[in-house]
Amino acid sequence: MARPFLFGTNFKMNQTPAESAAFYRQLAASVEIPPHVYLFVIPPFTSLAAVREVAGPQPHQIWVGAQNVHWAPDGAYTGEISVGMLLALDVDLVLLGHAERRRYFHETDVELNRKVLAAVGAGLRVLLAMGETAEERGFGVSGETVLRQLRIGLHDVPPEHLEKIQIAYEPVWSIGAGGTPASPEDVEPIARLIRSGCQDLFGDPGSKIPILYGGSVDPSNAGTFTALPDIDGLFVGRAGWTVEGFVATYQAGYAGKSESQ
Ligand code: PGA
Fold it and tell me: Are the C-beta atoms of 24 and 51 separated by less than 8 Å?
């Protein structure tokens, strides 16, 4: 079976609960979602309850995601949020390993692996983000870097939980206002490497793990990434922060995938 198409945005440290709820409501009213397409929004923790109110009971038309989770079920971890707390809010997905978490909060691959196992073990979908820094790229170790992040991050994921995993390849140098957009030629070999890395880890079921691209994606370049055979969707920041931008970027990405098939 063909892999699904995924598209979503991370609001990062932006938006009040009321703003996130209004965004979700307007987005849900603006899009028709074909079969095998999954859309998602990842607001800050403080917006999750308000968005869930709008989204109603699961299954949600548009997945609601969290930006992080702790690996322990409970305990003395001030400022952290557990998997159970997210499940109590009917969260569909958790983002792990975003470049900003790795860079500013020093999250390691080993810690991320603990988080991945805790999340999928409790039934949450995971979007595991990975990508090389400009420095690693300069040294010519993009492939090695991403494979290490993949192999440690997904270490010991049980086969029955594989369908909960999706990967976002986001070269760190391409993310955010200061980023340089990558070209499809940059992305193609790394996406292929991630695909074969998943197959090495998990056999045939591993090759079905969706791989999203992220980093300075907008409507003008979205379709160039999704036309790549190993890219199954897009994970955007800024371009998805207005409903109009979200819909335009999703549609451009989806058109790029449809035309390439
Ligand atoms: P950007 O962010 O689309 O604004 O570059 C991407 C990300 O941080 O995932």
Answer: yes
From the number of C-beta atoms within 10 Å of its C-beta (0-12, 13-18, 19+), residue 252 rates as: buried
- Residue 202 C-alpha to ligand 1 middle, in angstroms? 29
The string of pLDDT tens digits covering residues 185-212 is 999 999 999 999 999 999 999 999 999 9
Distance 250 CA to ligand 1 centre (A): 14
131-165 CB burial, b ≥16 within 10 A, e <16: bbbeebbeeeebbebbbebbebbbeebeeebbebb
The one-letter amino acid code at 115 reads K
Out of 13, 68, 235, give the residue to mutate to test ligand 1, the one with the largest number of ligand atoms within 8 Å of its CB: 235
Does residue 171's CB lie within 6 angstroms of at least one atom of ligand 1? no
Tell me the three state secondary structure of residue 158.
coil
Beta bridge partners of 63: 40
CA–centroid distance, 34 to ligand 1, in Å, is: 25
Which pLDDT tens digit goes with each residue over 148-169?
999 999 999 999 999 999 999 9
Decide if 94 contacts 65 (C-beta within 8 A).
yes
What is the rounded distance in angstroms from the CA atom of residue 56 to the CA atom of residue 24? 11
Q: Give the residue numbers marked as catalytic.
A: 98, 170
pTM for the complete prediction? 0.98
